[in-house]
Amino acid sequence: MTLAEKIGQLTVESHGPFGTRERIATGEIGNVINYANAGETTDVQAEAAKSRLGIPLLTGLDVLHGYRTLFMVPLGQAASFDPDLNRRAAEAIARETTLQGVNWTYAPMVDIGRDPRWGRVVEGAGEDPWLASRMAAARVTGYRAGGLVVTPKHFVGYGAPAAGLDYAPADMSEATLRDVYLPPFRAAVEAGAEAIMPALSALNGIPASVDGRLLTGVLRGEWGFRGFVVSDWGAIDQLGNHGIDPDRAVMARKTFAAGIDMDMASGTYRTRFAEEVAAGQVSEAAIDAAVRRVLRVKFEAGLDTRKPIPWKEAEAGMLAPATRELAVEVARRSIVMLENRRETLPIEGRRKVLLVGALADIAREHVGPHAAQYREQDVVTIRRALAERAARAGMAFDFQPGCDAFCTDERGFGAAVRAARAADVIVAVLGEPGDIAGEAASRADPNLPGRQQALLERLVATGKPVVLVIMAGRPLIVPWVAEHVSALLTTWYPGTYGSRALAEILFGDTAPSGRLPMTWPRHPGQIPISYDRLRSGRPAERDQKFTSKYVDVDWTPQFAFGHGLSTTRFAYDGLRLDRTEVGTDGRLTATVTVTNTGRRAGREVVQLYVRDVQASRVRPDRQLKGVASVDLAPGEAKPVSIPIDVADLGFHDETGTYRVEAGRFEIFVGGSSEASLSVAFTATGPDLVRPPASR
């Protein structure tokens, strides 16, 4: 290969003025982004075939939760607490995407998100490293099975920005980095991820694009990653904004030396590498190694044998019945019921239902950020789904928007209140319009926008039962709402068909089983917040002033991590372990009996948390370490067993060494992170100690 051809393989440029067909045909551009359909991808691959070597292009697109069939957003999918369901969804998404000739996705996003002010929590799996790691592995496995080259992002710490501001720097200890933020990336790599995208932000004062300790030392050295590293959009050019040398040649040199193989959309490698090689500043041997990584991914993914799919055939494969049904199933398992006073839900048996809220009738708002190639006409809106279900039940149905999506004024309140007085039950759909969720959508106070709460107050004042459905991409702060509505659910952004699942839940066809993958605070002053905070020497006590709490607001969350209700009830008893002593490298099993004590069938998501009672470092009060789901008929009881690998119960010290110390551990099992049923075991020595490079 010529040097220009090699540099081309380390370049990805976008649809438009940079990604010209001439440069693809000469080999100057070896990868593209935003060529989004079969016609476009076929055209650019044909240009690549004209080049001297005919190397196929990686054709990338942000496909996070669907291509044409939009599934519920990733944070919502994580609420299923079911990695296998997420794997199946990712595979279905990938199969639909690859029909259009797109072969590369910048997903999954595996950043831990503990600050709901940060808009991009919608793209991830929430706050818990155990759950997020399993979702990361599942999504990577599914995307790859469906034919996509996978790029987990944003390595690393992007999910912990100062003050919740997107792109802001993060600062954390080595122990926090390794215990909380790195595990999902490692899980993704071990699941076979072919590429990694570094963050646009800086961690501990080092921009991710030049952090060789992480990109080369940890990713390649400790983990043995064999794929390639691609910059985020324009990240190399933006190093000057961090205060790094603004000379583009220096930027190219530093990012490449740190471990970034491929430059996305800045043109820096393409325009600077040749002169840097000539000047002896960049080694051509190092370029060769990077090119080999890219080519290995291309050919192991079989890009050289893939045939273009005719446009009509590609279009015929969109919105396949099995894909649509799976999208509904994901929503069934991921909608979370937060409150249900006086068994307001289900609403069966009512004579007239009123739906209020403009969001319920706007197709674009249902699919959330990164909507890929969604089409408005495909979307089943909440208004349509509820109207159809009410008609089948012989129930009268009415709709009033009340206000626009942002609820900027109260002109429509009067009509909504009049209709509410004539209804038997009110379903209000309020929350975040998509414009204020996702990337570059940080919110200092993530509450109900505009005059939405005022509208809700007017509806509640009618005395009729009000069911609030929150459509949003993050936890919202809704203390008044939580105390005053009759029932409260979050449907996240349900996607193209997820509204059908909401209708099923509201009318009692399906019992909700989703669980919160992020803690919901009751006040912005609690943020960042997570259930697994480190223990304090003065833990909070209501009657003791000098303990760790607020004087102006309750220190507890509005809704805890793992919380989620059903339209039935479950009881736990008989928690036991198959052994009470086990080595630090051993395994034990916890078993509990779960009983459906209600009148309806339902699914319970059983959660197991572990507390390291005494350790050489301060440890969290509890950490999620196991999940199992059980379906139970009314009155039915079943034993549920969850295995525990003691080697997974450790922590990292400041040297990056992983330790599982012998001693006492407590196990809590229940329906959320507030589970109280407990039992203990002892891990017997010697301590398990693994230096960074060996784990």
Can you walk through the features of this model?
- One of its GO terms (biological process) is carbohydrate metabolic process.
- GO terms for molecular function: beta-glucosidase activity.
- By secondary structure, this protein is α/β, with parallel strands linked by helices.
- The chain contains 21 helices and 28 strands.
- The strands form 7 sheets. A 6-stranded parallel β-sheet has the order 5-4-3-2-1-11.
- A hairpin with a 2-residue loop joins strand 8 (202-203) and strand 9 (206-207).
- Helix 11 packs across helix 12.
- The longest helix is centred in the N-terminal third of the chain and has 17 residues, at 129-145.
- The two termini are 37 Å apart.
- The mean pLDDT is 97.
- Strand % is 15-25%
The spatial strand order of the largest sheet comes to: 5-4-3-2-1-11
State the helix count.
Answer: 21
Number of strands: 28
Distance between the termini: 37 Å
Radius of gyration: 26 Å
Query: Structural class from helices and strands?
Result: alpha/beta
pLDDT averaged residue by residue: 97
Query: Level of helix content?
Result: 25-40%
What overall form do the CA principal axes indicate? globular
Largest sheet: number of strands, sense, barrel closure: 6 strands, parallel
Unreliable residue runs: none
